[in-house]
Design a protein that fits this description.
alpha+beta, four-stranded antiparallel beta sheet, 28% helix
Length: 192
């Protein structure tokens, strides 16, 4: 993520840029977002997730990067396209869905390893509604953004679903051999 928090104008720009990218790919009439006076922080390496939902709240796509490996603008562009057209859980987005589509961009901080000695300690270290969580074991890896705490507010349930998402048994977090990292996000979402 950019070295400091992005301001509201930068966040609004990222949202407009993500929507423009999707609309342009669909051949929908769209307008390029007006550049900000300075775009420097958006050109720094950054990691972002783009989440697409329908106005009634149903998830429509969510793809992102955990580690900054390209400029933030490029990461948002690539992940907006992937969320719209390559999320394996959904059919590619169609132009007719655009009026009901809501875009959210989450800019991630660098994931930090979470040291823990027991499943009880792991539960006590997690900060619901604040932490995004990454789990890893062998080739299995998954993450939930902090926003997922809204649907899964209990840490045991959150971790169980995250293990399941990674292709592990739901109780794998109790075995003590998961690598766990946490990160924060700066979330920007379109106004209704």
């Amino acid at each position: 993520m950019a070295k400091s928090h992005l301001n509201d104008a930068e966040g609004r720009y990222l949202l407009a840029f993500a929507r423009f990218t999707i609309e342009d790919a669909l051949g929908a009439p769209t307008q390029i977002p007006q550049a900000l006076p300075t775009m420097d922080r958006l050109r720094e390496p950054g990691a972002a997730f783009v989440t697409l939902t329908m106005r009634e709240g149903a998830l429509r796509g969510c793809i992102g990067s955990l580690i900054a490996h390209r400029p933030l603008l490029e990461d948002v562009r690539a992940n907006a396209l992937a969320a719209a057209f390559e999320d394996p859980r959904f059919l590619p987005l169609e132009a007719g869905e655009l009026p009901d589509l809501a875009v959210e961009v989450s800019v991630l901080s660098q994931p930090e390893p979470l040291g823990y000695a027991s499943s009880e300690q792991l539960l006590s270290l997690l900060r619901p509604h604040i932490d995004g969580v990454v789990i890893e074991r062998g080739r299995h890896r998954a993450t939930f953004l902090p926003q997922v705490w809204e649907q899964l507010p209990l840490p045991e349930e959150f971790l169980g679903h995250l293990c399941y998402k990674a292709g592990l048994p739901a109780n794998a977090w109790r075995q003590g051999d998961l690598r766990v990292s946490t990160y924060g996000v700066q979330k920007f979402e379109e106004a209704d």
